């Protein structure tokens, strides 16, 4: 039990690889009690997800779920995690939606906090104002200030989609400040979103300062990619050529070495690499990045910028000023990993 507690503490402080090594030191077969088995697998799965191994996380959760009584708190918590992780896997969105709708319709009264935490991802399945109403209802059910701040971050993302950038920036500012005071390494996702708002207003120097501090505290592989991508863009427009090349090379090497299956990672990174190469005049690499992005952009927020980069300047499905000029493709983050 002591080793399990040590592993959980490592997770809670953002030391995910250390948590994995500590948890794997245990022999799962010696864990006799249901709750102990649950904690072991729950934190092991979350640790793997935070270092980018989502398929391994899903395998662990699907296995331990079979040992949990249906309708139990543990079972519902695992379902919530699975629905978030499924969204990162090609072809699993329908499974994620099925889980979300099941929790949304059936568990608000019996498991209000699990219901509220599941609603943190409602923007994936509910449109604008409906999502805002759900988030308001969810926040009323939560007693934990950290969980409330995670919801405020999601509210900011929904407001961005509704083209209410100033209100969104206020949400990201509030969420970032609160999360930083409660669990510092977790604040980086909200900080990333706050930096994007500055970038959309051409305040690249302010955004860069926010991102550099966020990168220092960040502990997830996913967050690192996103923040480095935005730092690449800030460096591009601030004419910090050496920094821009540094982040460009990191992102390009990551894609070559890891072949990520996550559609969002592929479309966001390849499109932004293409933008950098277009501005630098490297049209051969720009074309290569666009080819790599092609199969990931259809029916996504990235599709418009892909068409513009391909020369279709009339293509703009959004009635929004921020979508007129493809200076970069923003990558907002939601707290789906915890």
Sequence-ordered SSE layout with sheet pairings:
Elements: H1 2-12, H2 16-25, H3 34-50, H4 54-65, H5 73-86, H6 93-106, H7 112-118, H8 128-141, H9 145-161, H10 165-182, H11 188-200, H12 204-217, H13 221-237, H14 241-258, H15 263-280, H16 283-297, H17 303-309
Helix pairs in contact: 1-2, 1-3, 2-3, 3-4, 4-5, 5-6, 7-8, 8-9, 9-10, 10-11, 11-12, 11-13, 12-13, 13-14, 13-15, 14-15, 15-16
What does it look like?
- The protein has 338 residues and is mostly helical.
- The chain is built from 17 helices and no strands.
- The chain has helices at 2-12, 16-25, 34-50, 54-65, 73-86, 93-106, 112-118, 128-141, 145-161, 165-182, 188-200, 204-217, 221-237, 241-258, 263-280, 283-297, 303-309.
Query: Could you state the order of secondary-structure elements as H and E?
Result: HHHHHHHHHHHHHHHHH
Query: What best-fitting shape do the alpha-carbon axes yield?
Result: globular
Individual helix count: 17
Q: Which bin fits the share of residues in helices?
A: 55-70%
Query: How much strand?
Result: under 5%
Which structural class fits the helix and strand makeup? mainly alpha
The end-to-end distance, rounded to whole angstroms, is 22 Å
Number of strands: 0
For the CA atoms, what is the radius of gyration? 20 Å
Regions with little confidence, pLDDT below 50 for 5+ residues:
none
What characterizes the major β-sheet? none
């Amino acid at each position: 039990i002591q080793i399990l507690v040590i592993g959980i503490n490592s997770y809670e402080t953002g030391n995910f690889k250390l948590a994995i090594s500590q948890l794997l030191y245990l022999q799962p077969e010696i864990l006799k009690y249901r709750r102990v088995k649950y904690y072991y697998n729950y934190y092991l799965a979350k640790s793997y997800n935070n270092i980018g191994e989502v398929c391994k996380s899903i395998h662990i959760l699907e296995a331990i779920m079979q040992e949990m009584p249906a309708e139990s708190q543990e079972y519902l918590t695992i379902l919530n995690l699975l629905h978030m992780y499924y969204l990162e896997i090609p072809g699993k969105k329908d499974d994620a939606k099925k889980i979300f709708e099941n929790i949304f319709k059936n568990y608000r009264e019996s498991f209000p906090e699990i219901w509220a935490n599941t609603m943190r991802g409602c923007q994936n399945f509910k449109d604008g104002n409906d999502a805002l109403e759900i988030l308001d209802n969810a926040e009323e059910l939560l007693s934990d200030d950290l969980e409330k701040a995670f919801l405020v971050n999601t509210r900011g993302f929904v407001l961005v989609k509704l083209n209410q950038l100033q209100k969104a920036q206020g949400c990201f500012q509030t969420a970032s400040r609160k999360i930083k005071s409660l669990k510092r390494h977790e604040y980086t996702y909200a900080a990333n979103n706050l930096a994007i708002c500055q970038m959309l207003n051409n305040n690249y120097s302010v955004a860069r300062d926010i991102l550099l501090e966020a990168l220092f505290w960040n502990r997830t592989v996913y967050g690192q990619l996103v923040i480095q991508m935005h730092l690449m863009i800030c460096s591009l427009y601030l004419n910090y050529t050496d920094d821009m090349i540094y982040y460009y090379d990191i992102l390009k090497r990551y894609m070559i070495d890891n072949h990520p299956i996550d559609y969002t990672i592929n479309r966001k990174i390849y499109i932004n690499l293409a933008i950098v190469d277009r501005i630098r005049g490297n049209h051969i690499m720009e074309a290569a990045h666009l080819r790599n992005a092609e199969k990931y952009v259809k029916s996504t927020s990235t599709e418009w910028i892909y068409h513009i980069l391909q020369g279709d300047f009339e293509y703009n499905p959004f009635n929004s000023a921020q979508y007129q000029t493809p200076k970069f493709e923003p990558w907002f983050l939601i707290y789906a990993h915890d």
